[in-house]
Amino acid sequence: MRLHHVQVACPVGGEDAARRFWRDGLGMVEVPKPPDLAGRGGAWFRAVGEGGAEVGAEIHVGVEEPFAPARKAHPALVVGDAAELERLGGSLEAAGFAVDWAERHTFPAYQRFHTRDAHGNRVEVLAPA
Predict the structure, then answer these.
(1) Cβ distance 9 to 121 under 8 Å?
(2) In this predicted structure, what is the pLDDT of residue 66?
(3) What are 1-37's pLDDT values in tens digits?
(4) Contact 62/42 with Cβ under 8 angstroms?
């Protein structure tokens, strides 16, 4: 068994703000939703490696009404190394998102930071220590 995707929520009309975080901040690629699901709104994002190869992480941002951000539950994305972790933290900060390094060395065998997407959903990004 493997995980296919994690879904987080956004309010009605929140797709562009989601793109700013997932695509512009984290560098994921937006993938088209299947036609049968596209009418529901939202956006899907996938992590890709060099040359556009899929690397496994997929986030589905779904419209939810009434909307409430996930403050504790969260996706945790693993990147290759500490340099990539630093780069993504900087990319998110440059895009206007706060990056919290307070728990950087509190998870055995990993370094990490926490952030919140454009709608306040908690997100964790980790790299092997």
Answers:
(1) yes
(2) 97
(3) 888 999 999 999 999 999 999 999 999 999 999 999 9
(4) yes
Instruction: Assign 3-state DSSP to the chain and report helix, strand, coil percentages, each to 5.
Output: 25, 35, 45
Q: Exposed, middle or buried: residue 12 (CB in 10 Å: 0-12, 13-18, 19+)?
A: exposed
d(CA 12, CA 62): 9
Residues 6+ apart with CB under 8 A from 75: 6, 8, 57, 59, 123, 124
> What confidence tens digit (pLDDT) does each residue in 91-108 have?
999 999 999 999 999 999
Question: Which of 19, 21, 12 is CA-nearest to residue 116?
Answer: 21
**In whole angstroms, what is the distance from residue 122 CA to residue 112 CA?**
13
Phi, psi at residue 77, to the nearest 5°?
Answer: -105, 135
Q: For residue 24, what are the CA distances in angstroms to 43, 53, 97?
A: 14, 18, 11
